[in-house]
Structures are given as C-alpha cells and as structure tokens.
UniProtKB/TrEMBL annotation:
It comes from the Bacteria. Its cofactor is [2Fe-2S] cluster. The lineage of its organism: Bacteria, Bacillati, Actinomycetota, Actinomycetes, Streptosporangiales. PROSITE patterns: FAD_FR. GO terms for biological process: pyrimidine nucleotide biosynthetic process. Residues 4-100 form the FAD-binding FR-type domain. GO terms for molecular function: 2 iron, 2 sulfur cluster binding; flavin adenine dinucleotide binding; metal ion binding; oxidoreductase activity. InterPro entries: Cyt_c3_hydrogenase_gsu (IPR012165), Dihydroorotate_DH_Fe-S-bd (IPR019480), FAD-bd_FR_type (IPR017927), FNR_nucleotide-bd (IPR039261), OxRdtase_FAD/NAD-bd (IPR001433), PyrK_electron_transfer (IPR050353), Riboflavin_synthase-like_b-brl (IPR017938). This is NAD(P)H-flavin reductase. Keywords: 2Fe-2S, Iron, Iron-sulfur, Metal-binding. Binds 1 [2Fe-2S] cluster per subunit. [2Fe-2S] cluster binds at C236, C241, C244, C252.
Amino acid sequence: MHPMTPAPYRVRSRRPDRADTVTLALRPVAGPCPPFLPGQFTMIYAPGVGEIAVSISGRARSGGYVQTIRAVGAVSGALCRTRPGDVVGVRGPYGTAWDLPSAEGLDVVVAAGGLGLAPLRPVIRELAAHGSRYGRISLIVGTRTPATLIYPGELARWRDRHGIDVQVTVDHPDLAWKGRVGLVTRLIDRIVFEPRRTFAFVCGPEVMMQASAAELVRRGVAAGRVMLSVERNMKCGVGRCGHCQLGPLLTCLDGPVLSYERAAGLLAVREL
C-alpha cells in the first residue's frame, strides 16, 4: 500500500469524555493492527473532510488503537461525531516514542496540561503496571476548568490502586471544585523526587511545557532526562511535505518526542 493511502479502520466504541472531547477505539477492517510505541501518533482521515495527526492514547481491548480527540476544527469535529460502526482512514503509527527504558530505576515525574494527558496515558499505564521498576512516581495535571479534565476515573485509579502521587490543578474553578487552583508548575513544589535521579515526561500547550521543563531543570533534573512532545502542523506524517518543520527538524520524523536538551533552543525562537 502506498504510504499516503490510509487503511480503513472501524470505530468499535465511542466514549464522550467532555462536551467537545471523545475517546474512540479503532480497529482495522482487515488484517492486524500495526504495533505502536507510547508517544507515537497516527494520521486519521475523516472521509470527505480531511486528515489530522492524533496521538495514540492506548491499545484497545479489541486489538486496535485508543485515541482521544477534541473538536477544534472541521476534521476533528467530524471525527468526534463518528459512531460505532463508522469507518475512518488511518495511517501510521509514526514518530518517536517516550523513552521509558531510560526512566527505569529513577524517580519519574509526568506533567500534563489539558489534552496533553492523552499522549501520556500509555506512559502512565506502563508506570502503573510495572511500578517496581521505577522510583517514586508523580503525575501532575493542569486543566482550564474541572469540566475540561479528561480521564478523571483513571486518575483516581492510578492514585488509589497503583500508589501514584496524582496532583490536579485548574485555572478556573467552579463552586464544587475542592482541589488546587493555579498553574501546573506550582504542583512541582508538592511532589517528592530526587532531581539528580529523576526522569520526566511533559506534554501540553507549548508554553506549559517550556515552563515545566525549565522549572524541573532549574531544580536539578538533567535536560536530557526531560522529554517533551512537540506539535507542529503535520500534514503527511512521513517527512515529505515539510509543514511540521521545527528549525532543522521535522517533527513527524525527529519527533514528536524530543528531549528538552534538544528542543529548548528551538522552542525559544518565536514562531519557529
């Protein structure tokens, strides 16, 4: 099959997460589902509308992909409106992965902003399943409002069943909110880790990633041990179109997962 030709995948299940966000389980119409690594993405085609890059949030029980999508445009909106039984197109998986093997034996900090929790979900599930391989595990999550928080049930399970230190903050609380309020970087003060023996995974809006990574490095975490998931406007996913260029890098090939050591200088350049 030509690399730009999507394979047909059927929507096996659809779970509304929030008013504008759904989680889909997708399975190939024919043949096995290609394996993926945490941090990789696929290009998903909404028939007659277009194609977008979407991070893989996990493996479905049916053997396909779990992918969480927020309706922010024509393509994502069309994908969010799909129902079980509908068919979409999928290419991939593509891109670099979260470096979980390098985190073994170290404290782990996972920092997520908004929908950035979705690409980190496979990392957290791995940490929860094999916690004995790692030191202290902390998950800090920031979101705009309580209503925009995704995976609340899983956050509770990771905390209560797997002993992960889960801390959540919101920018704008409602009357029922009893948790923290403020920037996710403030939660770094509330978790326990040994900076020189820590590995971090960070995903969210770019300004949040830069601030979180810089704060972790300021506290002594090596920049090469802070991993970010960098987004640009991916069109082809295979390094042909150049739309996702970040300086000398193509984020669909060299990313999306990059170390802060490699990405810091590029992210500091305005509108690069």
